[in-house]
Amino acid sequence: LSSPEDLSFLHGTLIEYRCHKGYDLTSPTMLVCQEDGSWNGTAPHCVPAECETPPSPKHGWVNVTDTSLGSMVMYTCEDGYRLEGDSLRQCVSGRLWTNDAPICRPVSCGDPGTIANGTAHGGDFVYPEALHYECHPGFVLRGRDTIACQVDGKWNGQKPLCEPLSCGSPKVPSDVSVKGDEYNYNSEIELSCQPGFVLRGKSVSVCQADGTWSHDSPTCVPARCGKPSPIPNGRVLGSEFGLSSKVKYECDEGYALDGDATRVCQSDG
């Protein structure tokens, strides 16, 4: 720039300063030639035009080598994150960077899907989130209970399976018979005894969610009918009440029996 003092100007002349491309004024200044032949201020300076250094994005950084007019900066993300937006920005007139600053977004591993008879707990399907799997009651987990989203956008393992829990073959005494060959959760088996014996305990056992059968300790005991009830105006003859034992009924004098005179203790007691 030439100083106004180097030229001749008339009173009232207004001059405006401008800088060459790539330079900015230190202040927007206009000078006026006054009556006494002096200017009403001092000339500004032209300095190289520069943009402010842009901040690095979260989970990334910006490579800055120069911030002068026309210079470029490049954005990069950490592993596990992808750049959303333009990776390059340029310093332009007005000390502005072109475009909006890009953002580093976590990479997505995608939804691995649900599992039958179980649930998954966790956040989004992005790095570095993890999913934790649990099975419903009566099912057991086969595989890893936790999988994590990795930097390459892949899960670090396969989702697990929930398989029906097995109670295994029921343990009962040798004289207790078992009917049923399904031993998974909620399956039922029937317990019984040989003729002449009665089951002491539950006759139906269920495979429970904790992997145990619902029966306690069933046993087979000889069938016994117990002493029969007396009848009015009559009597019961007999003192053995075990299996196949017989009792006989008689009426007092003057009364006649209505029904069978003999009863037999049966195998079901």
UniProtKB/TrEMBL annotation:
Disulfide pattern: C19-C46, C77-C104, C135-C162, C193-C220
Keywords annotated in UniProt: Disulfide bond, Repeat, Signal, Sushi
Domain of life: Eukaryota
Signal peptide: none
Pfam families tied to this protein: Sushi (PF00084)
Keyword set includes Transmembrane helix: no
PANTHER family: PROTEIN CBR-CLEC-78
Protein name as catalogued: Sushi/von Willebrand factor type A/EGF/pentraxin domain-containing 1
Classification lineage: Eukaryota, Metazoa, Chordata, Craniata, Vertebrata
